[in-house]
Amino acid sequence: MHSLIQGVILGVLTGGVYALMASGQTLIFGIMKVVNLAQGAMVIMAAYLAYQLFTSFGVDPFLAIPVTTVIMFGLGVGVEVLFLRPLRREDKSELSLLVTFAVALLIEGVLSVTWGTTFRSINTTYANNSWTVGGYQITQVRFWAFVLSLVALGLLFWLLNRTRFGRAVRATVQNPESARLLGVDDRRVSALGFGLGAATAAAAGSVYGLLYPFYSGSHYDLISRLLSIVVLGGLGSVGGAVIAAVIVSTSSAIVAATISPAWSEMTFFVILLLVLLIRPRGLFGSVSRGAI
Amino acid sequence: MELSNRLWFRTSRAFVTAGLALGLAACASGSSGSSGGSTTSGAPKPPLVIGASVSLTGDFADSGKAVQRGYQLWADQVNAKGGLLGRQVTVKIVDDASSPTQVVTNYQNLINRDKVDLVFGPFSSLLTVPASQVAKRYGYSFLEPAGGGPKVFASKLDNMFFVQPAPVVKSGEVFADWILSLPAADQPKTAAYAELDDPFAAPIAEAIRARFEAAGIKTVYKQVYPAETQDFSAIAAKIASSKPDVLVSGTQTEDAYAQVKSLVQLKFSPKFMFMSNGANSPLEFPNKVGEANTAGIMSAGDWFPGSTASGSAEFTAAYIKANGGTADTIDNSSAEAYACGQLLEEVASKTGKVDNATIISSLHQGTWPTLLGDLSWDAIGQPQGTFHLVQWQGGKLLPVYPADTAQAAPVYPKPNWGG
């Protein structure tokens, strides 16, 4: 029982980290109908950037986030302008799968050449610290990562619902033609939206690097999890992605504690399958376009 | 031996999640060419050309380059001494991009087109299996420093010699030997096992478990986990709640780091802790888990800085001279590759010949001193020795058992996390 509760505590906290990564993914889909297969690679890239800032300059990975966010935002905008914009509108969704996969491979290749293929991890003095609360361990990094996720998601929510840019984004999602008629520059919205999605990878990367050892190929595991979370939450729904992330990591933790860790990785695919059978649009996906 | 096989596991894992991606990558980079090995002969004897396919690109690139450094270092050393039986040694390295198909092409080209005199092995069991079969077909001896998994020996080749002290699955035996040599009162009563489901990890822990259970050490927890396991919180929580005296971790690389991190976070430190792999890397391990958390953790190793085995001091000095750094920065793979060359030298000095038939027949008899210790092989190339038990003490990885090669006494119980 003790190990079960301990597992659940850590599972919920880990869910926050995945929520952060998946929110960027689902945002990009919501705005552009692009499934970004490079999201995982971008997270790993941000982890390397945080690693380098920490090892070379002693910058704390949490404090490095503003810097890496700017870099990742720039990268996201660049990818959109260079690789996605030239695609024809009619088959953009299909082709974008190939294009973003190519971007993922490109990033992986650059990371391998730059940092080699050995595992890295960011080891701050507090990386392995935990608080003991009522006999249970709450790891500090996971806790702060969870808090950070809430803050980042709050910012994202504010940006989408309380700003002019957010209104333009939502308008573009609901009806690109009408939005354009009303003067929304949908090309600009797409570029900024993709940049914003990539920017969430920055915070996620710092946290990922603190929690797990990583190397350039780590993004394969990551992207399969992220896609499952996004589909489970409903493609395009940020709130859905958050809830799906917590469901996924908590249920994996419960299965690992009660049945076996061998089954925990499979748990969320089972949940995903069940949800898709009963509710094919995901937990919070809407039938019509336009819910973010 | 430490990292020699982890990449095989890593690749197979990536294949599962993204076979397409790797397929494409392999196609794109699979055809790295070879450069001609020009000979500057004017000397009476032609040079002795040794061919090897090594992964200079792709997933195994880091370790592949370490193997290359080992081969080249040995060749430079032996040439400085006037060559092998008066012949200058040329090492001809071709890149296989970590691909099991390219490695076959490379050895066929080396043997048929380039007509090299001898061949050495590539990096990893994944590549050694197909490569050793090519060598066998053409009657070449096959000294290989980095392929010790069960599949390598499954083909039962008599021309192949794994140049490490023991097959990978037996690398943990030395820990069981040491534990069972302790006074009864000091021996652990309960044990937990956390094992990666991989031919290079779980069998090592299982071999130890068989020995421990036979000796009456009770198993309180055992878990085999899949390669995809990223988060070890649940496993660590179970280990912590079962409170074992000894924890045996059948690990590869990043799972070892993750296990340690999770146990530190849960504040559980067993009295004895052995990790089959990952913990035996002098640079990587402290970097990944924090130096203070390494104290007391044990693992198995073949070569270590400060080793007094045959040629080790010479190797260490030459390596540092050629590549810079300190003895601690030397990858074991370089030492293992260097040992292949040492063996050739010994065969040459003992028999006066360095042809393939002589090498094969010689190495099947007797023991051969190398910087990894004295090596000997059975009929199918399985080395017959044991690894050294190494332990982290004061931020350094020191051999602690058996006593004749130990540089320090084993410390137990293991200090708590953080030293």
Features:
heterodimer; A: 292 residues; mainly alpha; two-stranded antiparallel ribbon; 2 strands; 3% strand; B: 419 residues; alpha/beta; five-stranded parallel sheet; four-stranded parallel sheet; 13 helices; disordered N terminus
Q: What secondary-structure arrangement, pairings included, does this model have?
A:
The complex is a heterodimer of chains A (292) and B (419).
Chain A lengths: L1 H31 L6 H19 L7 H20 L7 H24 L14 E4 L2 E4 H23 L1 H11 L1 H6 L4 H26 L7 H15 L4 H21 L2 H18 L14
Antiparallel strand pairs in A: 1-2
Chain B lengths: L5 H24 L18 E7 L6 H20 L8 E7 L4 H14 L4 E3 L4 H13 L4 E3 L5 H5 L5 E3 L10 H9 L8 E7 L5 H13 L3 E8 L7 H10 L3 E5 L3 H12 L6 E4 L8 H6 L8 E4 L10 H12 L8 H20 L4 H8 L4 E3 L2 E3 L12 E6 L2 E6 L18
Parallel strand pairs in B: 1-2, 1-3, 3-4, 4-5, 6-7, 6-8, 8-9
Antiparallel strand pairs in B: 10-13, 11-12, 13-14
Helix pairs in contact in B: 2-11, 2-12, 3-4, 6-7, 12-13
Overview in brief:
The complex is a heterodimer of chains A (292) and B (419). Chain A is mostly helical.
Oligomer: heterodimer
How much of the residues of chain A is beta strand, in percent?
A: under 5%
- By DSSP, the count of extended strands of chain A is 2
- Largest two-chain interface: A-B, 43 and 45 residues
**Beta-strand share of residues of chain B:** 15-25%
Radius of gyration of chain B: 21 Å
Order of H and E elements of chain A? HHHHEEHHHHHHH
**How far apart are the first and last residues' alpha carbons of chain B, in Å?**
27 Å
Amino- and carboxy-terminal Cα gap of chain A: 38 Å
Low-confidence runs of chain B: 1-41
Give me the Rg of chain A, rounded.
19 Å
Strands of chain B, total number: 14
Q: Approximately how much helix is present in the residues of chain B?
A: 25-40%
**What is the succession of H and E elements of chain B?**
HEHEHEHEHEHEHEHEHEHEHHHEEEE
Strand order of the largest sheet of chain B: 2-1-3-4-5
For the biggest sheet of chain A, the summary is:
2 strands, antiparallel
The secondary-structure class of chain A comes to mainly alpha
